[in-house]
Amino acid sequence: MKENECPLYSSKIMLSIGDALEAVNGKWRIKIIAALLDEPKRFKQISNLIDGITDRMLSIELKKLEINLLVQRTSKYSSQAEYELTDHGRSLKPLIMELMNWGKLHREKVIGKQEVL
Amino acid sequence: MKENECPLYSSKIMLSIGDALEAVNGKWRIKIIAALLDEPKRFKQISNLIDGITDRMLSIELKKLEINLLVQRTSKYSSQAEYELTDHGRSLKPLIMELMNWGKLHREKVIGKQEVL
DNA sequence: CCGCATCCGCTATGATACTG
DNA sequence: CAGTATCATAGCGGATGCGG
C-alpha cells in the first residue's frame, strides 16, 4: 500500500502530522530555519533577518530547535557562537519551499481581498 | 532570477512564510484540512478523526478556515452541515504531504531516541 | 556588543455544561 | 447531531535589565 494513496485521515497520518507540527510550530521556528537554510549565522544576524522577533524568543526557539536536532550550535568562543542547520534541519527545505509558494499564493488569493487575518 | 535560487532569507520570502503560517498555524488547522482532503465530512466525523480535539476548538478553527477561504460549509439542514475544502484549501495538499513525510522521518530520527518533545 | 533571565499580560487551548 | 457559553489555565511572547 503506497503511503501517498492510503486514506489521508488515518491515525498514522495524523500522528506524523502531529510530530511535524510539534517540531516546527509556532510563530518563529520555520522562519529561523529559513534564515539558516543557506549558511550558518550568528545570533544577531538571524535576529536581523526575522522581522519582529525578540532576543528572548530567538534564544528560546533556537534551544527548542537544538533539542529537536534541527539546529546545531557551534560555540567557537563565547559571544561568537554560530548556528547552523543539521542535515535533518536541511531536510525541511522542500517543506519550507512549499510553504513559501503557498504563502505567496494565499496572499494573492485571500489576503488583501478581505483585509482580515 | 529564479525563485528557488534567490536568497532564502529575503524579506519577501519571510513575508510569504508569515502569510502561510498565519493561515494554517496552531495545533489543529492542518489536521482539520488533512481530515477533509479526500472528501467532505460532517462535524462529528472530523472530530472523530482528530484525536484530542474538543468541539469548541473544532468549531473555532473551522470558522477561521472559512474566513481564510480554505474550507466551505454547506449547511443543508441545520444539524446536517457538511464541511469541504475549497480549491484553495485543496492547494495545501502538497504541503500536507510534505509535512506528513517529514513528520514520519522526524519521528524515526528524533522522537523515541530521546523521549522529549 | 552578545545572549539570557525575570516579570508579567494576553492569547490559545481545555473542561464542562448548556441550547436548538 | 452540531454547535455555543462560561470559566480556568499554561504557555507564548513583549519589556526590560543583567552578566559575559
From TrEMBL, chains A, B:
Any GO molecular function: DNA binding
Domain HTH hxlR-type intervals: 6-111
Protein name, entry field: Transcriptional regulator
Pfam family, one: HxlR
Entry-linked InterPro entries: HTH_HxlR, WH-like_DNA-bd_sf, WH_DNA-bd_sf
PROSITE patterns to which the protein is assigned, alphabetical: HTH_HXLR (PS51118)
Cross-referenced SUPFAM superfamilies: Winged helix' DNA-binding domain
